[in-house]
Amino acid sequence: MSHDDYPLGLTAQVSLYPLRQEHLSPAINAALAIWRDRGLDVHPGPMSTLIAGNEETVWEALRAAFAAAAANGETVMVVTVSNACPWPPSQHQ
């Protein structure tokens, strides 16, 4: 099976770490809302979230999610992006 046999898209594993913030959930919830609002497949886990969708939407949503999280304070975002992971991602929950 060639790469052309798969839908164009990306899967990203994202870990978001709000730093020196009294409450962590506002930054994380802002990122989750952005990914969902853009129609991405979103699968939150205890330490990271898997998101999947078309390439342009994933990249734009990662940028927007970081900006939203950073609006709450200092933030670290760790992202692994792949065009070779299962599409759409399997349910891990």
Structural descriptors:
93 residues, single chain, Alpha-Beta Plaits
Could you tell me the radius of gyration in angstroms?
Answer: 14 Å
Number of strands: 4
> How much of the sequence is in beta strands?
25-35%
Strands of the widest sheet, in order across it, are 2-3-1-4
Order of helices and strands: EHEEHE
- Average per-residue pLDDT, rounded, comes to 86
pLDDT below 50 for ≥5 consecutive residues: which ranges? 1-6
The major sheet is characterized as:
4 strands, antiparallel
CATH architectural grouping: 2-Layer Sandwich
- Into how many domains do the coordinates divide? 1
User: Helix proportion of residues, in percent?
Assistant: 25-40%
Q: Shape from CA axes? A: globular
| Number of alpha- plus pi-helical segments | 2
Task: Give the class from helix and strand content and strand pairing.
Answer: alpha+beta
**Topology-level CATH name:** Alpha-Beta Plaits
CATH class: Alpha Beta
What's the end-to-end separation, in Å?
A: 28 Å
